[in-house]
Design brief:
The chain is mostly helical. It has 15 helices and 5 strands. It is globular and about 95 Å long.
Length: about 450
């Protein structure tokens, strides 16, 4: 009898070990039906919390700033929340040095995020529900960094997120919201690693963000010409207005590199913007081109103010000169652009080069021997940009090396940007929002 008991005890220990592995635990909590039930139940709790918050009547909408309109304390997580469990599994795996477990939990949460946004866009759950997935991904990101100072665990997390974005890039029109969240999570992690002088790890967010922008400007251009349902894709990452926002994320990485004096990483950021700017111009995407030129000019100015030198010991050119070089790359493609758009692109590059040098730079597109030729004329006049609004007037003097304001680039040299008076909004309650996020037993069982 004793040998049998001992054998059973050994078998139970083996079974417990097998069922307690991250892989087994992730499988238990990676069921779409459970995810959907959680999203709808938590969505219903959010709607109830919103109604309770409104009933407090702390202030009327017309008596509060805009950022308070949609804010409310979110309800606590459900005790049976499988997303919270996946986050805990990923964090525990990170602390234990289990890279495989981190990846499995991360991949499950990314899949859950896709399901979450399906529920949100189908109006079966409110947008606040996305927080229960996004919070867990942020937890794993930080846990992976804190658990291993070498970054080997964090690299696996970043790679899993980058692979997710890559798969989304393979879709024609991926949703913007989940992609922008993952991209911002990658960039935030990259920025933290740059501060820790681990810039090799931070190349992952730089590479994948640029690649997604590259695919996006081409997809937007092709869709505009060939997609009969082009106007149906405004919620996509590859829609015109989302691409400049995605491109601007790389500037955060460049500024972090400037702050720690890493001109090698900064050079990679210059390259990213130079290549992307050329692609955006060829695709006729004016705002993404402007985002690239603006970032190059600003980062070049920041590098000059910091006194950085080129990272390569065989190059005596300063980083700000490399930034100007990348803007000139973009400039060379203007002659290939639609003639109706050339003047606008010339204005973008002129303003970027004027900001970078600090002095008014004008670009003339001419012909020499039947070939396009660009003539750049930099004057001794300081480049200034004015801004006026009800709050006052300011003139930005870019010849002042201490003036570091990163201002919107509109594509013209000289003049002043004027902001009109604040337009009052009339806020009225609607019943439509109350129908979002409702749940019933039949839906929960799906």
């Amino acid at each position: 009898m004793l040998p049998i008991t001992s054998l059973l005890s050994v078998a139970l220990v083996g079974l417990a070990k097998r069922e307690a592995t991250p892989n087994a635990l992730v499988k238990q909590h990676a069921q779409k039906r459970k995810w959907r039930q959680t999203f709808r139940r938590y969505g219903a709790l959010c709607k109830e919390a919103e109604q309770r918050w409104k009933q407090l009547a702390l202030a009327e909408p017309q008596n509060m700033p805009m950022h308070e309109w949609s804010w409310m304390p979110l309800p606590p997580l459900l005790s049976t929340d499988p997303l919270n469990m996946l986050g805990a599994i990923g964090c525990t795996a990170a602390k234990g040095g289990n890279a495989s477990g981190v990846v499995q939990a991360t991949e499950a949460l990314l899949a859950a995020m896709d399901e979450c946004y399906k529920e949100i866009y189908a109006r079966r759950a409110p947008s606040e529900v996305s927080s229960i997935v996004e919070t867990q991904l942020r937890r794993i990101a930080v846990a992976a960094e804190e658990a291993d100072s070498t970054g080997s665990i964090s690299v696996r997390f970043l790679d899993a997120c980058a692979e997710y974005l890559g798969r989304k890039g393979g879709e024609h029109w991926p949703l913007a919201a989940p992609c922008l969240f993952v991209a911002s999570t990658l960039v935030a992690a990259g920025e933290r690693w740059i501060v820790k002088d681990k810039t090799a790890i931070a190349r992952t967010p730089l590479v994948i963000v640029r690649l997604m922008c590259e695919k996006g400007v081409r997809q937007w251009s092709d869709g505009k010409k060939n997609d009969e349902r082009f106007e149906d894709h405004m919620e996509s990452l590859f829609w015109y207005w989302n691409l400049p926002n995605l491109a601007s994320m790389m500037q955060t990485l460049g500024s972090a590199a400037v702050n720690v004096g890493d001109s090698d990483y900064l050079y990679r950021v210059f390259d990213a913007y130079g290549w992307l700017g050329c692609s955006a111009l060829k695709a006729g995407n004016r705002d993404t081109t402007a985002a690239c030129v603006r970032a190059l000019a600003q980062l070049g100015r920041e590098a000059r103010a910091k006194g950085l030198e080129c990272h390569w010991d065989r190059c005596a050119i300063k980083p700000e000169d490399h930034a100007r070089e990348r803007i000139q790359w973009i400039l060379t493609w203007i002659s290939k652009a639609d003639p109706a758009e050339q003047e606008g692109f010339l204005g973008i590059c002129s303003q970027g080069l004027s900001r970078l040098s600090g002095y008014v730079t004008k670009i003339l597109l001419t012909e020499e021997d039947g070939k396009p030729f660009f003539k750049m004329v930099t004057s001794k006049d300081p480049h200034t940009e004015g801004f006026s609004s009800e709050a006052g007037h300011r003139e930005l003097d870019y010849s002042d090396s201490k003036m570091m304001k990163d201002f919107e680039l509109y594509g013209f040299v000289g003049g002043s940007v004027m902001q009109g008076p604040t337009v009052p909004l009339r806020v009225e309650p609607t019943d439509e929002a109350n129908s979002i996020g409702t749940s019933n037993k039949k839906e929960d069982e799906r």
